[in-house]
Amino acid sequence: MNYKVKRWAFFSLGSNQGDRLELLRSAAHIMNEWSHEELLISPVFETPPWGFESDEPFLNCCIGLPTKKSPYELLRGALQLEDSLGRTRKTTSSGYASRSIDIDLLYVGDEIVDNPPDILLPHPLVDQRKFVLEPLEKIAPKFVDPLRNKTVSALLHELNDDSETCLYEEKLLTIL
Fold this sequence. Notes:
Elements: E1 7-15, H1 20-32, E2 40-41, E3 44-47, E4 58-67, H2 71-84, E5 102-108, E6 113-115, E7 119-121, H3 130-139, E8 144-145, E9 150-151, H4 152-158, E10 166-169
Antiparallel strand pairs: 1-4, 1-5, 2-4, 3-4, 3-10, 6-7, 8-9
């Protein structure tokens, strides 16, 4: 695989603890350093927790960045970024819990990687999550999911999820 060719990587960011908006901003600033080109940053949406019960809603957004890095390098960077922003991993029966920051690698170009438990690309639940597809559709509506062979807009349109999402912040960052 040739990782010298630049392609887009897309991430989902979420937070439901602490200063949620500031945590997303901090992550976006750091991710900007991963690429010397301008990031694509979606608006921020407030969404209910997915997969577990909590009184604390999430703020969610998506970021796209041009990269030459491998999926493994990007995933490692996302995990290190979570740690640096105070993420502590909790184990629950559902596998989900409240968190200061969550960064999921959704796509790296048209790559399909099936190497559990290390990495799965595209993210295996991307087509089931409105809190991911709605912000992703704002920055990459025509991006084609290489596994499902559908655009992000089509995946969002076909999604059977009536959860409430609310636009929270139009611009996450004004100046990078």
